[in-house]
Amino acid sequence: MHEAQKAYHYGFDEHKALQSLTTVPASSLKLGHRIGSIEVGKDADIVIWERHPLRLGARPKHVIIDGEELDFQKPWGKSVTELEQVMKAESVKEAATDDERHYLPPFSQKTMRLEDHGLNNPESFSAACASGVDSYVLRNIGEIYMNASHALRASELGQALYLVVKQGEIACIGVDCDRDHVEWPNSSPIFEMGGAVVIPGIVSMGVPLGLSEIQAEETTQDGYAKNDVSDDGLYKKVVRAVDGLKFNGLHLQKAYKAGVTTSVSQPQVGSDLLAGVSVAFRTGVENTILDVVDALVKEEAALNFVISHSGAMTVSKQIATIRDLLVSNIKKDPLHNIFARAARGLIPVVVQVDDKDEIASILLIKQAISKEHSHDVKFVILGGAESHLVAEHLSRLDVPVVLMPARCFPTTWQSRFCLAGPPLTPSTVLDVLLKHKVRVGLGSTDVDNGDARNLIWEAGWNLAHNPHLTPQDAVGLVTWNLAEIFGLIDSESLDGPGVLNKGGKADFVAYNSNPFEFGARVLLVSGGGHDGPTCFPQQI
């Protein structure tokens, strides 16, 4: 169904998108006389959706096969009574919004126009969005999501919203940015945004963007890191992702054109424990790392480990090795030893792990080092399919989670307890983590299916069923949350990826309508190391 939703987003007619999953495959299989449509005399195979199936986050409410309804209230390991109470509570909430849920909003026809305000403003998009353009004005913005504590809406303020950019920095944002209050740049584009929605540039994490192009072709990849964890001199030669970056590849172009302006990429690893040191960089760089002054956001974003179940080392040995690498180096010189920096909390330590007990073991390491050495290791859980089962401890120890994939599937033994969400379970892993106030970001698995460009959809997926999740919270899942987790935001200026502030870099993406609905189009991408704004980017 999600593939049909994406087809609808990119131009399929509503009915043709649904037919691609029903009548067309049924006819292709020569089974159209029995299945594929709801007609008298055909099999009673029917799905009743809680909202229009082509809307983001739509989930089945009732599934009927051969006239028998599937019972979703009997998932593994869950109390039927408890689930009945939850589902009843949810049905009351849904009944109040039936009209809205069953409605498929038409695609917004709003777009971006150029205006001439007598300041020698460019009149063509080819000139307005050319290389070298670093000053411009966005006028008539509908909503601006700046950071976790500031979101501006023109409808609530009763005033027009602006964003004035001068020499690549935000000179004014919000209200009182018109020409009566702020001097607009001369000979620069004035974009009339038609009520657009502006959010900070999206931050990707999890997928090694810039290190791999074609998964099945080794020559297009940086290769797999081989860090010998038994080598006493490992700290001198640990693999660093920054050394293998390749800019302007197809995956990076797709991500950038969808508003992903920053990526945190870790070295690829096979079945080894230590991946190496990840890098945070800007995705819009068109040539090499030498051509853009700020191409790198952070050379050392995190120290990355991957708990593997296919290698020679047992899981318990892997956990012990992580502990030893941190503890044995804790008194070494942090200026020259990456493990010393990690042990002292000077750099995040990312552990890719799904299993609840393995996550608990990582938390025990954090507790032990804090108690015995008085240092706070900044662990980050990547993956986290079963992290909801240790949510209280993650919150207590302030260990953030980057869910990868954003919506978990119990495809492995280590993720068998993950929460898929309604109708199978009342909540998702994300819902539980947010309820316990765990810091959460969403990761991408672009190497598998190119979904880095779809991160904004992953962020908005739970809005369909979680009344406690706001659009501002959803934006944060792929912007400022990740930037804060990896220390990408300057503590003094509060500038950095994932946030919008006056005086900060103009790093943002503008949509013509609500980005959490299919059909929303990217009007403009700014920043990401790209020379000039990118207008009306087309996916490739």
Automatic annotation (TrEMBL):
Positions of the Amidohydrolase-related domain: 8-68
Gene Ontology MF annotations: hydrolase activity, acting on carbon-nitrogen (but not peptide) bonds
InterPro entries: Amidohydro-rel (IPR006680), Metal-dep_hydrolase_composite (IPR011059), Metal_Hydrolase (IPR032466), Metallo-dep_Hydrolase (IPR051781)
Pfam family, any one: Amidohydro_1
UniProt-listed SUPFAM superfamilies: Composite domain of metallo-dependent hydrolases, Metallo-dependent hydrolases
Listed PANTHER family: ALPHA-D-RIBOSE 1-METHYLPHOSPHONATE 5-TRIPHOSPHATE DIPHOSPHATASE
Protein name, entry field: Amidohydrolase-related domain-containing protein
Source species of the chain: Parasitella parasitica
Biological classification of the source: Eukaryota, Fungi, Fungi incertae sedis, Mucoromycota, Mucoromycotina
